[in-house]
């Protein structure tokens, strides 16, 4: 079968021929219908050799959807022929976090070398993939896998970041989304669907700001110091109640810190190196700064329901499997609108 793999440190991924996998006990073989490309892929492929820990060759793709092709011995809970999405942050399945469906915070994943597909385990950017357990599958039903696959990360990650902040996002509050890419443009929609806040999008690129307005943002500004004045104007001088930074560069986290007020939330979602100093004289009082990771399986089901009722969608561009390396070239160049989806 064909697969898009990262083969050599510092070199672009390439499409190669590999052996079709066979499911072992408890495993599920999927025939892939769609696979999303993510900035996290680009991030790990940018790591120098001494920091790279994901194994080579690595079949990319941690956003996956497919048809159940074959069940390994003892696997149950899904049927051959079902359309499913892959819940990506795999854990041990037994610890306290996993028992709540929060495998993204599995206590034992690191020490037991349990890695997500495409981020250590073979991923979905191939014709077939192995899912280690049926519990990591969510039924898609009538949802289009190509339109929905990116919700497994580009929808789940912002949903997980936004959900705890909803009690603060009352009428008259301002929520700020920094970076309107694959995740940011879905975050705008989730905020509009679930809160009464005024949603402000910030991005350096005009095309990204237009995308934010197209998917429902109330305002979109360039991500510079002038945006702080606009946000204070919109909030009656108060500032942003919640800021979601989907870039996490030094410049964006520093910008975010200048627009919050007492009891605000500053949520660093992006994988950039940016950070925020926290201390008595660093930020307004009781500003909560936190950095979430992915999301839980129950939250993925909730995200898919939002898509099913038409409250959110992912802007996509589709590519064949042979074109998969081009997706990452386009991503690096910043010319994708929304998410690049590979369709074998």
List keywords for this structure.
seven-stranded mixed sheet, 344 residues, Quinone Oxidoreductase, Chain A, domain 1, 2 domains, 10 helices, 24% strand, single chain, alpha/beta
Write the layout of secondary structure elements.
Layout: E1 2-6, E2 14-17, E3 28-37, H1 39-45, E4 58-59, E5 63-71, E6 83-86, H2 96-99, E7 128-131, E8 137-139, H3 145-148, H4 156-162, E9 174-178, H5 184-194, E10 198-202, H6 206-214, E11 219-221, H7 226-234, E12 240-245, H8 250-257, E13 260-268, E14 288-290, H9 297-308, E15 316-320, H10 324-333, E16 339-343
Parallel strand pairs: 9-10, 9-12, 10-11, 12-13, 13-14, 15-16
Antiparallel strand pairs: 1-2, 1-4, 3-5, 3-7, 3-16, 5-6, 6-8
Describe this structure in words.
By secondary structure, the chain is of the alpha/beta class. The chain folds into two domains: 2-153 and 295-343, Medium-chain alcohol dehydrogenases, catalytic domain (Quinone Oxidoreductase, Chain A, domain 1, Alpha-Beta Complex), CATH 3.90.180.10; 156-290, Rossmann fold, CATH 3.40.50. Helices cover 24% and strands 24% of the residues. It has helices at residues 39-45, 96-99, 145-148, 156-162, 184-194, 206-214, 226-234, 250-257, 297-308, 324-333; strands at 2-6, 14-17, 28-37, 58-59, 63-71, 83-86, 128-131, 137-139, 174-178, 198-202, 219-221, 240-245, 260-268, 288-290, 316-320, 339-343. The strands form three sheets. Strands 3, 5, 6, 7, 8, 15 and 16 form a seven-stranded mixed sheet that branches. A six-stranded parallel sheet has the order 11-10-9-12-13-14, with helices on both faces. Strands 2-1-4 form a three-stranded antiparallel sheet, with no helix packed on it. Strand 10 (198-202), helix 6 (206-214) and strand 11 (219-221) form a beta-alpha-beta unit. The chain is globular and about 60 Å long. The mean pLDDT is 97.
């Amino acid at each position: 079968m064909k697969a898009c793999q990262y083969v050599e440190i510092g070199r672009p991924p390439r499409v190669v021929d590999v052996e079709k996998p066979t499911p072992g006990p408890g495993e599920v073989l999927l025939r892939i219908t769609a696979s999303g490309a993510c900035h996290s892929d680009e991030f790990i492929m940018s790591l120098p050799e001494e920091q790279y820990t994901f194994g080579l060759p690595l079949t990319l793709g941690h956003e996956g959807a497919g048809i159940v092709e074959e069940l390994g011995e003892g696997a149950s809970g899904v049927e051959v022929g079902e359309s499913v999405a892959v819940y990506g942050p795999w854990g041990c399945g037994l610890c306290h976090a996993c028992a709540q469906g929060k495998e993204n915070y599995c206590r034992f994943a690191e020490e037991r070398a349990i890695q997500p597909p495409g981020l250590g385990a073979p991923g979905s950017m191939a014709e077939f993939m192995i899912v280690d357990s049926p519990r990591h599958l969510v039924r898609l039903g009538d949802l289009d896998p190509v339109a929905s696959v990116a919700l497994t990360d580009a929808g789940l990650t912002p949903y997980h970041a936004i959900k705890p902040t909803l009690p603060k996002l009352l009428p008259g509050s301002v929520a700020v989304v920094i970076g309107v890419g694959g995740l940011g443009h879905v975050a705008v929609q989730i905020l509009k669907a679930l809160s009464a806040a005024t949603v402000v999008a910030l991005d350096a690129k005009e095309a990204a700001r237009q995308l934010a307005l197209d998917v429902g943002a109330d305002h979109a500004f360039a991500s510079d110091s002038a945006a702080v004045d606009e946000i204070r104007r919109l909030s009656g001088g108060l500032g942003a109640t919640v800021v979601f930074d989907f870039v996490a560069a030094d410049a964006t986290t520093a910008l975010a810190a200048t627009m919050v007020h007492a009891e605000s939330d500053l949520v660093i979602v992006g994988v950039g190196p940016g950070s925020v100093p926290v201390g008595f004289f660093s930020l307004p009082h009781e500003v909560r700064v936190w950095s979430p990771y992915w999301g839980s399986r129950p939250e993925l089901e909730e995200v898919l329901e939002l898509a099913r009722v038409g409250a959110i969608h992912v802007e996509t561009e589709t590519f064949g499997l042979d074109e998969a390396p081009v997706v990452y070239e386009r991503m690096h160049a910043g010319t994708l609108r929304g998410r690049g989806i590979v369709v074998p």
